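Reopening: structure tokens for the aspartic acid complex, inputs below.
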Amino acid sequence: MPLLVMKFGGTSVADLARIENAAKKVQKEVDRGYDVIVIVSAMSGETNRLVGYVEGTSKLYDAREYDAVVAAGENVTAGLVALRLQEMGIPARSWQGWQVPINTTAQHGSARFVSIPRDNIDAKFAEGFKVAVVAGFQGVSPEGRVTTLGRGGSDTTAVAFAAAFAAERCDIYTDVDGVYTTDPRVSSKARKLDKIAFEEMLELASLGAKVLQTRSVELAMRYKVRLRVLSSFEDTDENSGTLVCDEEEIMESKVVSGVAFSREEAKITLFTIEDRPGVASAIFGPLADAGVNVDMIVQNISEKDYDDAHPGAVTDMTFSCPINQVERAKKAMEDAKTAGLIKYDELIIDTDVAKVSVVGIGMRSHAGVAAKMFSSLSAENINIKVISTSEIKISVLIDRKYMELAVQALHDAFELDKA
Ligand code: ADP
Ligand code: ASP
Ligand code: MG
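Re-run output (same inputs, fresh job):
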């Protein structure tokens, strides 16, 4: 039997009517002759509610119990979707992560897949079941404890199942009808893309476009999963939505194909650090040890370059990290200072920032993207605090209050509304 993976996000299973709507989409594929693995998220808002319970109970919570609580949302929707399918006369059952089993590492809250043995689900398909409804976002650790994959993780569950079961396609049903040039909720000029290259999608996702979890794109790229994003609220067919695929499959070639943004950044500056060999390592070593994901880094130029003649040179260092890691970063720096590993006069934290990025594989072969980006931001009088670039993206850190304006300006400057 050909097999499809269909994933329904939180808004697509937000209440019983939407669950019925999702089940009808599954029914259509079953009628076409597919066996289907359905991956479900928790009802929208549910995971946040559960996280709130955990944080309201314990500040420095045991991550294993956090996972036990927050994984529960997906268990509910898996059961309800299976029940709805049964009501429609389709042989279906639900699967929690441990029942499959979805084996993961023991990194609670951000576990990674180790293996997804097919035997149990295959045996049920062989018995005549048409649909396996699997709780997304969760797994089981080597110790037998419930794990979760990080927020948005059901996308990754879907892609992992598509790879493990050699699915014909992995369809991600969500509340938008595809991947857009930027978040359609921020720019009304955002344009839906028919196709997007894995690498571009990977950058967009990791730079803040929440439509797919970054890890899901990585897995799809590695295992060559045909990955599609489409609307759960509209009528859809084989050509709907956006296909995430190899760059060779794409005809349209724009230099920049999307704008991503993230409000979840913070900027930290250490003033008056020594300018000498080993200082960067003395700063970023302890940050890494503390589990801080440093993103952008700027070191100022000293007035006098470090050399034998200027042993006392000083400079400043600025870096960005996820906003929820600021306290950890601050503590790591203070501890390093107390231990005499680094010196600085002042540590300043700025949480009122946003990161805005332009992404496109065309940047590899085109000059001038940075110049255009900076000039369009300057035309809006938006000051750039930090810049970072890679082969196919340029990111800037700016005041958060200008984020929407910057997204619009860049979308216009690179004419992303035009095909
Ligand atoms: P789900 O609950 O289905 O997983 P998410 O909220 O995680 O849905 O992801 C869908 C959302 O991603 C959309 O509602 C949209 O606001 C947001 N989004 C951000 N960037 C983009 C983009 N480039 N294209 C489409 N959607 C985007
Ligand atoms: N329910 C989880 C979350 O809200 C996982 C997901 O929906 O992908 O993060
Ligand atoms: Mg999501």
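Residues 260-413 form a domain with the VC0802-like fold (CATH 3.30.2130.10). The pocket of adenosine-5'-diphosphate (ligand 1) is lined by residues 9-12, 41, 152, 174-176, 179-180, 182-185, 204, 209-211, 258 (CB under 6 Å). Marking as resolved unless the reporter disagrees.
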